[in-house]
Amino acid sequence: MRVIFLGPPGSGKGTQAKRLVASHGIPQISTGDLLREAVRDDTPLGREANGYMTAGNLVPDRLVIALLLERIRRPDCGGGFILDGFPRTLAQAEALEEALKEKAQPVEVVVNLEIDTGEVVERLIGRRVCPNGHGEWHIRFNPPKEANRCDRCGDPLIQREDDQEESIRTRMEAYSRDTKPLIDYYRNQGLLHTIDALGNLDQVTGKIERIFS
Ligand code: AP5
Prior knowledge:
Blueprint: E1 2-6, H1 13-24, E2 28-30, H2 31-40, H3 44-55, H4 61-72, E3 81-84, H5 90-102, E4 109-114, H6 117-125, E5 127-129, E6 136-138, H7 165-179, H8 181-188, E7 192-196, H9 201-212
Helix pairs in contact: 1-9, 2-3, 4-5
């Protein structure tokens, strides 16, 4: 199964995609996570991407497309994948389509998470992440077992640099300008399933699972 999760920042793409990994046995691929890993490892890609990400701007297509295409060629993607945060521009969508066409393995489902801006701002401002990449929580909606500590390593949780108000605004603008047009792109291909992403984590998972059944 080859699935794309579309939606504005904070709509729950990452949280829900990770839940599907367990139930469907295919990897979740988040370009945001791959880029943050490159920043943490201080690779040339990470150094180039860091400024764009902190400010809330999209990383240039040429970098992200190469990163994603390399990732989906790995053996664990043979049975499919869930893309979370890619594509985000028309150029990225076309590059993906082209690459999958060569293998005759097109995208099968696009899940579009719809949510209003007020809710996503609250979700993003309250998000806390493990500095060692062990996961993320929300101070109110999905708190860790011990306040402000990673459930896995116990280190203090931190706020993502791009979860500050100004970066959130820039990310929302980038979404409206560059990513929202993909809704029509996939609707025209008959692949789009839009769900209301309001509700608790289990309720949203339920709505997504109904698409697959
Ligand atoms: P990325 O990491 O992909 O950030 P994003 O798209 O802005 O998405 P988020 O991770 O903020 O939100 P999400 O929808 O995954 O929500 P989540 O599940 O985490 O990208 C970061 C940056 O990398 C970009 O700005 C860009 O610079 C660069 N980048 C990445 N991909 C790129 C690409 N393809 N092209 C160019 N540049 C790219 O949930 C958010 C919070 O809400 C969490 O705390 C969660 O616990 C909580 N929550 C989730 N669901 C619920 C719920 N139902 N109820 C209550 N709380 C909830």
